[in-house]
User: Which sequence fits this backbone?
């Protein structure tokens, strides 16, 4: 059963059974997110943990041991282990909810993820916490929202952002570890050194600003029906490139606020 949060003319729907994802974000009668698709990767806004984006061939090394993850996008692993797992609703009120899940059998360490969601009339606040249970492990996390290119009114979606660098991709489409000057789109790329919060604008309808504590931002604008703007604590393959160590009692925390104004 979906959880619904509302404040004024803003409504958020969350499906705990389908990865704890946001299935709907409706503002002033405008649905901003792409609706349910055939697979788990291509709709709504879902949390990614304990890694975000691809892991090269599903392998990473930690503390002298190599670990093999499920290849859910062969030949690589992608978007974590919790995107299609059932989550428990730990708390739900009119404007905020807390969902919790463990990391599942597909992750070689015991831990859990907490997703805190709060809505107001002009903003949606999200917070992810990745917790280790009994031993440290490397992690990254983030969100994967699918923003509709066209709403029921107004012009098509335009994305404005400025970044000082982007991660160069190797022939596998995974960051090589080198930072380069950003190139023109279309993109399926990860940017860093953001100089200002990204802004999504549907002319004559709505403007949405993305403010986040995350250091990296994946932009995927190749689909004709949507643009993905994904705050992440590290780039794809972060378990190798920029791992953050999660220790018992010291979680990895990411926060993002989507705020908007009507045009």
Assistant:
């Amino acid at each position: 059963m979906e959880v619904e949060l509302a404040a004024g003319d803003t409504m958020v729907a969350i499906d705990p059974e389908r990865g704890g994802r946001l299935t709907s974000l409706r503002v002033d009668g405008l649905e901003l997110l792409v609706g349910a698709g055939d697979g788990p990767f291509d709709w709504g806004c879902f949390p990614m943990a304990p890694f975000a984006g691809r892991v090269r061939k599903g392998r990473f090394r930690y503390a002298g041991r190599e670990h093999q993850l499920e290849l859910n996008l062969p030949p690589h692993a992608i978007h974590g282990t919790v995107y299609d797992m059932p989550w428990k609703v730990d708390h739900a009120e009119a404007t905020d909810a807390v969902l919790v899940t463990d990391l599942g059998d597909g992750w070689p360490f015991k831990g859990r993820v907490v997703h805190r969601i709060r809505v107001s009339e002009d903003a949606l606040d999200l917070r992810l916490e990745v917790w280790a249970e009994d031993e440290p492990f490397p992690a990254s996390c983030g969100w994967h929202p699918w923003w509709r290119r066209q709403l029921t009114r107004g012009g098509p979606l335009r994305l404005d952002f400025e970044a000082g660098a982007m991660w160069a991709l190797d022939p596998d489409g995974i960051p090589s570890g080198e930072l380069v000057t950003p190139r023109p789109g279309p993109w399926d790329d990860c940017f860093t050194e953001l100089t200002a919060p990204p802004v999504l604008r549907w002319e004559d309808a709505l403007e949405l600003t993305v403010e986040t504590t995350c250091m990296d931002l994946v932009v995927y604008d190749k689909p004709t029906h949507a643009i993905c703007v994904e705050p992440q604590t590290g780039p794809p393959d972060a378990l190798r490139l920029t791992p953050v160590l999660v220790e018992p009692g010291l979680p990895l925390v990411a926060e993002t606020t989507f705020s908007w104004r009507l045009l």
About this structure: The longest helix spans residues 238-241. The longest strand covers residues 252-262.
